[in-house]
Amino acid sequence: MVKTLDIIVPVFNEEKTIETVIKKLEETDFCSLEKRLILVDDFSDDSTREILSKIKNHKVIFHDKNQGKGAAVATGIKNATADVVVIQDADLEYNPCDYSKLLKLIVDDEADVVYGSRLKEKSQEKSFLFLSLFANKFLTALTNILYGSKITDMETCYKAFRREKIKDFKIRAKKFDFEPEITAKVIKNKLRLKEVAISYNARAYSEGKKVKAKDALQAIFTLFYYRFFD
Q1: Are the beta carbons of 172 and 131 closer than 8 angstroms?
Q2: Sequence-distant (≥ 6) Cβ neighbours of residue 72 within 8 angstroms
């Protein structure tokens, strides 16, 4: 029976939003699961580390050098002990309330992994920046072609996992290649993967969005690598 939940929050230079995100996570009911936050600071150089150093009621981990989002998530997974693991970005693009829809499928034993899709409903496309929408659709389509899947949003941050199913995955990704790597491994290991629609509020690059064009190229390489060479 699923009883506990670890919420992994990779953090880098989020001094403007991190306290709000933590408060939202504390106030949100996650299918009545007993929850714990695992905050992984990836060597922020603003006041984020100072803010996190004052937190006593959650697990906080500090990287001693900047490694990338994927490395921060991997650190979180290594330190997770709960029945279910989810990922929450430290900005305000996603609404934590949406996670209940993902978790219910795992609690009811209908899935091992659930993705919160920002593109399952066409009306959500208006929430994207144009280039981000194109890149997400292209990378998702490439995933489906290479792996024979039928997902609608491979790059989504909102992913929920039954921890026992992924605890032995060796995550090599350091940056934003985490999403294609974990997706490739989930599909190749034939885990029960489902999607549910979620809301999304993209922030502009001027507001601190960190994904760049080179990350899309890395994602393409990662998808091909895990399809044919690993």
Answers
A1: no
A2: 10, 11, 12, 40, 41, 42, 63
Q: What is the pTM of this model?
A: 0.93
Query: Could you read off the pLDDT of 33-59 as tens digits, one per residue?
Result: 999 999 999 999 999 999 999 999 999
CA distances for 194 relative to 110, 112, 119, 171, 183, angstroms: 9, 8, 14, 21, 12
CA 159, distance to chain mean position in Å, is 5
pLDDT-derived band of residue 75, with 50, 70 and 90 as boundaries? very high
Place of tokens 């929050």: 9
**What pLDDT, on a 0 to 100 scale, did the predictor assign at position 211?**
66
Q: Could you report the per-residue pLDDT of 104-121, keeping only the tens digit for each?
A: 999 999 999 999 999 998
- Tens digits of per-residue pLDDT, 4-31? 999 999 999 999 999 999 999 999 999 9
Compute the mean pLDDT over every residue in the chain, rounded to the nearest whole number: 94
DSSP assignment of the chain equals ---EEEEEEEESS-TTTHHHHHHHHHHS-STT-EEEEEEEE---SSSHHHHHHT--SSEEEE-SS---HHHHHHHHHHT--SSEEEE--SSSSS-GGGHHHHHHHHHTTS-SEEEEESSSSGGGGGGS-HHHHHHHHHHHHHHHHHH----S-TT-S-EEEEHHHHTT------STTHHHHHHHHHHHTT--EEEEE----PPPGGGT----HHHHHHHHHHHHHHHHT-
Residue 35 · residue 55 · CB < 8 Å: no
